[in-house]
Specification:
Layout (H helix, E strand, L loop, with lengths): L3 H23 L4 E5 L5 E5 L3 H23 L13 H32 L23 H27 L19
Antiparallel strand pairs: 1-2
């Protein structure tokens, strides 16, 4: 039977990670050109809070995934699963869960790294054109937030399927009928 405590904790971690990813999307750094006292143009960036939100979302999603995998023994460790449809769903959802988790983590990590990257004095390199104030493209944290939702749903479905496939499974499978007995001949 699936532990309701694990499901609730994973849901809360995923919900907070989603909220942080949405907040990171809303508070991305913005840039504008400014001129210093020596008439050199440089970029001025707004607050860098989105990097912290993205990193926090990254860590919470990682904690959620680790909790699900540790509590289900990552499908590869522990006892075997009972042959059934639940085992098939557990295997399929396990693979999809890791794919969506990887995509979400890449979006959050890349978004946080790119949002933290700021260029300043680029006119020293090419003095004829103003510097290009690079900012994070809109939607990177949003894509991470969408994949957080997918990962949350799929990981909880995986955990429930894994729990269904591992319950009422005899310790020694097939011990009740070990084949043809010699006394029956």
């Amino acid at each position: 039977m699936a532990s309701k405590l694990v499901l609730v904790v994973v849901f809360i971690l995923d919900l907070i990670a989603f909220a942080l990813a949405v907040a990171a999307e809303q508070h991305r750094s913005k840039a504008s050109l400014a001129t210093d006292s020596s008439s050199q143009k440089y970029c001025v960036y707004t607050t860098d809070i989105a990097t912290g939100y993205g990193a926090g979302s990254f860590l919470l999603l990682l904690a959620s995934q680790l909790l699900i995998m540790v509590s289900s023994r990552c499908l590869c460790c522990g006892r075997g699963l009972r042959p059934s449809g639940s085992r098939t769903w557990a295997i399929v959802l396990f693979i999809i869960c890791w794919i969506t988790f990887f995509i979400a983590e890449v979006c959050l990590l890349a978004g946080s790294a790119k949002n933290a990257y700021h260029t300043k004095y680029r006119t020293y390199i090419s003095s004829t054109s103003p510097p290009s104030c690079q900012i994070l493209r809109k939607g990177v944290f949003g894509a991470g937030a969408a994949f957080i939702v997918f990962t949350g749903i799929i990981s909880e479905l995986y955990y429930v399927s894994h729990s269904k496939a591992s319950t009422n499974f005899p310790a020694s499978y097939g011990a009740a009928d070990s084949g043809v007995r010699m006394g029956n001949l």
